[in-house]
Amino acid sequence: RSVVYWMRMEDLRIEDNTAFAQASACAKQLGIPIIVLFVISPGDYRIHDRAKRKIDFVLRNLRWVKAKLDKINIPLHVLTYEKRLSIPKKLITELFPQLGATHVFANIEYEVDELRRDIATVRFGQEKGIDVVYVHDRLVVPPGKVLSKQGKPMSVYSPWQRAWAKVLDEQKEFLRMQDVPPGNDKSLRDDPEFGKLFEATPIPDFVDGFKCDDEDVMRECWPEGTDVAKEVLHRFLYTKPRKPQFQLVSPLSEGAEEDAKNSRVAKYQVGRNLVDADNSSKLSPYLAAGVISGRMVLNAARKFGKGGKLDSGRDTGVGMWVQEVAWRDFYNHVMAIWPRVSMGRPFLEKFADVQWEVNEKHLQAWKDGKTGFPIVDAAMRACAKRGWMENRVRMVSASFLVKSLMLDWRLGEKHFMECFIDGDLAANNGGWQWTASTGTDPQPYFRIFNTLTQSEKCDPNGDYIRYWVPELRNLKGKAVHDPYHHMPRNEFKKLGYPEPIVDHKQSRERALFRYKNVGERE
Length: 522
Ligand code: FAD
Hints:
Keywords: Chromophore, FAD, Flavoprotein, Lyase
GO biological process, one term: entrainment of circadian clock by photoperiod
Family: Belongs to the DNA photolyase class-1 family.
GO molecular function: deoxyribodipyrimidine photo-lyase activity; DNA binding; FAD binding
Order of helices and strands: EHEHHEHEHEHHHHHHHHHHHHHHHHHH
Number of helices: 23
CATH class of the largest domain: Mainly Alpha
Distance between the termini: 66 Å
Number of domains: 3
Organism: Naematelia encephala
Shape: globular
Radius of gyration: 24 Å
Strand content: 5-15%
Bound molecules: flavin-adenine dinucleotide
CATH superfamily of the largest domain: DNA Cyclobutane Dipyrimidine Photolyase, subunit A, domain 3
């Protein structure tokens, strides 16, 4: 007999992992071994637009986890199931009986497909006498726990965030870290039944159809493992920024001088909106894959803030950062409470029928970073090369696709998922719907980003643009933000850089008209 912890691609760690801790406690109580299971599901990855980089990152972290599990005598059983819909039945009727599993523990995934799969697993389990237990772990505060005074779910971020911080100040258990499982008895390795599990199912080098084309760059920029994630967090909180990280370098590439007063978090209020320096934590790939937990991050932030209230507000860098981290909980709550958002539907249903353009050329120019709008092109090229973008330029490039090119936000959402190493349905969908004015943003649709103003604000000297768009490397002053309108035509032509593919003013008017007259056709 055994207890199984079913690890998912959002909880790739050993520390502070609720399902793993509970599975371990259950195994100890019953006096039977614990086994960790990981199911590779290419069908799921395809249907959910998973980036090859993300799948490679998952496998790398899984190898890291396996090395740690080996040390505590816990076998990691890795399986590939091609047909995603067959997973519940196969697990319950084939795998779990083979492993002698009496209890199975997993952390809840809040996406609709995953919830359906997990409910089916519970149902089949009941028929076969296998206890399948799901627990909250992904978020710091589980969905349904942040409510208005009237006991209703909230969809506007600011009041939601205040209520979230209050829950955390009042209910400290949400910040309590889970015990690290002690592991199995060493004798398990000599056990005729379980011993062979240690070698039986190796982690594949890659998943068919998801071989990463740029694994060397990804491995350099985003090294795997909880130890790395903790170091990234530590440097963000306590050390002086290194050379600009908008470049293609590892977050740990240089020595770090301890200086909490001048650390990135200390300057986050200003820094978070600038893309020309190393300003944000770059923890998103690690948080999205659960290599580090939200609790670990918030406990570190509290320690940095000398244990103060989590609602310390926007008047300190760390207070501001905690509010950003809270967005992760927020968008997951939105997805869990209004599941239509994870099924491609707008949060604000009245915008289901905006008239979108169909323009393959424009879509491709956007993806390739060849729109003639330097900040958008820089961001899109960074995304293509590094699998990651700063928050401000995610908003700017998303807004450009939706409001300037008038292309359906779902096309952009899909492209980001296919490129990002931190691709996460709730955060990505939330970000896109926010920008497309179809989501939870209380601002009306007619607040439209001005790409040029945004560019001058977030990259004042143009360093970010010059790095990612080499055609503009020699431009000085304002020309770098808008070369087409700042240079004689013949000089501009020599750059080899595209002309703007839309006129900002006209496209703004088109967007206003289309949103105002939603449901009508021109
Ligand atoms: P920091 O500023 O250091 O913030 C710390 C952590 O807080 C982040 O790692 C992230 O986990 C969380 N966080 C911060 N801002 C947000 C936010 N707006 N929404 C949700 N979580 C947030 N984030 C993803 O993790 N995956 C995505 O696929 C993703 N897609 C996005 C798409 C669009 C169109 C937009 C506008 C935003 C998207 N974001 C996404 C949110 C945000 O841009 C990134 O989390 C952030 O840029 C990551 O950088 P960081 O780790 O240095 O962030």
